[in-house]
């Protein structure tokens, strides 16, 4: 958010992983400031009961205290304090204050910022400094937000673990020997660890929803196309979107209103009359037993609050959606990333990126096969059929939203190295391919362009969070968020 950077040049610094020292998340010496929501902190700053400088200083100290989680790639405390000082002066001078005035927000490091480099989590772009902010960053700045830092991610957003060979793995703040999920792992980690009240991520095939679920925070993948994508490192235009992380639905609603340039979604106070579809097959296949138990308890909580649960399968979804996202990504990534480099990182080529790419991302730079174009056309047609399937499903059963687990297991261990260990993930004693373990339940909404709101639903006996995802029809983001207020009240665990 360049306009808040001040006159001093801002230089990014890498926060590398340090020795693991898992501990309870708590406000510590900063008291209750770390527990403030965006809405609460903004209200206090606007009335003068809290200064932006006091709030920023509390968050900076927490970032430094939890630096071993490795949530950030770019972080400049001096610049944050300077921006907060300017925010306090603006209030003292009677200037018009936006809804996010003085609130430091973290931004995933594949979203352009002029004040800090945009690395994409890859070695070749480590010094890449775009000339201007992405449109979504500019909207946050216009609302008064401050740039807290740039968050770590799975390299170029091309994975679900945030095990980054260049900048180190993002550690789950609930259990630091576990992954945070990806690709927006640093953003989810920073929110969960109280380093920031909110953050931006991106979601192509689950990259907001997976880390939100594994770290125990709220996350929104909006309908595809709801937010502008100019200035964001692309993967697949037919799937990509920016989205917010926060610790409550009220903050998701506020951030959505700023990013979409609309009025905030109104809160729905109860779930009476809300028809929630529960597809028993596909989404519930192969669940870890602890995840299954938490999901069943979540359903009971929703029903207790008056929701009408409709158990009906999405017949044919598994066949229709199989391989669609992968085909779209493979074709579009090879065409869109060079276009981004030409505009925002001139002189940098795909060959340069491939040469410095980590071992779990370098296969993405393999030339598409000759039949990639034909496969892409087939995938686009399949995408239309998946959209039609969800539309007919919701019409047939008069559904308002759909609910399902985000991933079938709690956060897996990080492992010994930066590359996810083959052949995959162990769930209920079975080895499951990574794309199935992480991608299966999140891919349908991405392909169909549906909004997805993730809320914490509980935790395993080991304290690992489990999240559930609610989907509404494409373009019905306000309804989804409004219903999310009541669902949050029904589900909210003490994490």
UniProtKB/TrEMBL annotation:
Keyword Membrane: no
Biased composition (Basic and acidic residues): 1-12
Keywords on record: Hydrolase
Pfam families: Amidase
InterPro entries tied to this protein: Amidase, Amidase_dom, AS_sf
Molecular functions per Gene Ontology: hydrolase activity
Region (Disordered): 1-28
Residue ranges of every copy of the Amidase domain listed in the record: 58-480
Protein's UniProt name: Indole acetimide hydrolase
């Amino acid at each position: 958010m360049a306009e808040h950077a001040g006159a001093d040049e801002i230089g990014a610094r890498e926060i590398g992983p340090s020795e693991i020292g898992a501990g309870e998340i708590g406000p510590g010496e900063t008291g209750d400031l770390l527990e403030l929501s965006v809405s609460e902190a903004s209200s206090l700053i606007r009335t003068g009961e809290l200064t932006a400088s006091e709030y920023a200083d509390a968050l900076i100290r927490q970032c430094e205290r939890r630096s071993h989680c490795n949530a950030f790639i770019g972080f400049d405390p001096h610049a944050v304090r300077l921006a907060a000082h300017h925010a306090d002066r603006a209030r003292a001078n009677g200037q018009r204050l936006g809804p996010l005035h003085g609130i430091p927000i973290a931004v995933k490091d594949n979203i352009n910022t002029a004040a800090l480099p945009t690395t994409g989590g890859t070695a070749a772009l480590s010094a890449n400094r775009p000339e201007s902010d992405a449109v979504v960053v500019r909207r946050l700045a216009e609302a008064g937000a401050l740039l807290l830092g740039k968050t770590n991610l799975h390299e170029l957003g091309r994975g679900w673990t945030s095990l980054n060979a260049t900048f180190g793995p993002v550690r789950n703040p609930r259990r630091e020997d576990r992954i945070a999920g990806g690709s927006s792992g640093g953003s989810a980690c920073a929110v969960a660890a109280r380093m920031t009240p909110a953050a931006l991520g991106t979601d192509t095939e689950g990259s907001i929803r997976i880390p939100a679920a594994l770290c125990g925070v709220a996350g929104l993948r909006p309908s595809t196309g709801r937010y502008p994508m100019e200035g964001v490192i692309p993967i697949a235009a037919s799937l990509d979107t920016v989205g917010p992380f926060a610790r409550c639905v009220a903050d998701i609603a506020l951030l959505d209103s700023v990013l979409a340039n609309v009025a905030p979604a109104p809160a729905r106070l109860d779930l009476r009359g809300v028809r929630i579809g529960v597809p028993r097959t596909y989404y519930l296949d192969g669940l870890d037993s602890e995840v299954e138990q938490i999901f069943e308890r979540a359903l009971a909580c929703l029903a207790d609050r008056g929701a009408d649960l409709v158990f009906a399968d999405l017949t044919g979804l598994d066949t229709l959606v199989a391989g669609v996202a992968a085909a779209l990504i493979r074709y579009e990534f090879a065409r869109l990333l060079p276009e981004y480099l030409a505009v925002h990182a001139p002189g940098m080529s795909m060959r340069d990126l491939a040469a410095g790419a980590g071992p779990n991302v370098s296969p993405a730079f393999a030339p598409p096969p000759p039949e990639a174009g034909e496969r892409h056309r087939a995938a686009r047609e399949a995408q239309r059929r998946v959209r039609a399937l969800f539309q007919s499903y919701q019409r047939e059963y008069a559904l308002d939203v759909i609910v399902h687990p985000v991933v079938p297991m709690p956060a897996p261990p990080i492992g010994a190295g930066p590359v996810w260990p083959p052949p995959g993930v162990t769930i209920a004693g079975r080895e499951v391919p990574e794309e199935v373990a992480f991608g299966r339940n999140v891919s349908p909404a991405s392909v169909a362009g549906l909004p997805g709101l993730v809320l914490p639903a509980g935790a395993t006996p080991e304290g690992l969070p489990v999240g559930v995802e609610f989907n509404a029809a494409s373009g019905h983001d306000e309804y989804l968020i409004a219903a999310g207020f009541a669902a949050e009240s029904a589900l909210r665990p003490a994490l």
